[in-house]
Amino acid sequence: MIGSIHPSICQLDKLTTLIIPDWKGIAGDSPPCVTALLNLRVFDLIGNSLIRKIPEQIGNKKNSLFLNLADNKLTRKIPTSIVQLSSLKHLDLSNNLLIGEIPAKFGNLKMLTRALLSRNQLTGMIPTSLTNMYRLADLDLSLNKLRGQIPPQLGKIKIESW
Fold first, then answer.
1. Transmembrane ranges (predicted)?
2. How confident is the model at residue 111 (pLDDT cuts 50, 70, 90)?
């Protein structure tokens, strides 16, 4: 497939899963209207050529469980609204060109079990709020430009199973 994701996809208001992996020909931005699909729980566009940014409205997707935008060409910052995804269990933004800091309230994602943010250009400190994530089993922040110490409390998290 070559081209972009047409905004008409947003007319599928009962859509629960959108998976378009590794097509490489899908370029441009993801339509911002995707964030208005209230039933969309799985959004997986790994391995395409999406560019620019993650829509700021991504935080409106309260029912999202799985967000995978790894292996694209996303630039700019991780939107701070991402911390509003209260049901999110899996987040993979690895291998992009994301810049800026990890949102300070990232630890608000209490249901998150996997946070994969490796191979970006993220800067700043590792947020201490990560120590509030009691379901987090996989955290990959490698190959970024983060500085400072790993919060000591991070190694003391008691992981709860679900």
1. none
2. very high
pLDDT of residue 85: 93
Question: At the fourth CATH level, which superfamily is domain 7-156?
Answer: Ribonuclease Inhibitor (3.80.10.10)
R_g of the chain, CA atoms, integer Å: 15
Query: Token pair for residue 136?
Result: 């987090």
pLDDT tens per residue, range 51-81 = 778 888 888 887 889 999 999 999 999 999 9
CB 64 within 8 Å of CB 43: yes
Find all residues with CB under 8 Å of 66, minimum gap 6, and list them.
41, 42, 43, 44, 88, 89, 90
Is the alpha carbon torsion for 97, 102, 103, 106 positive or negative? positive
- CA distance linking residue 141 with residue 147, whole number of Å: 11
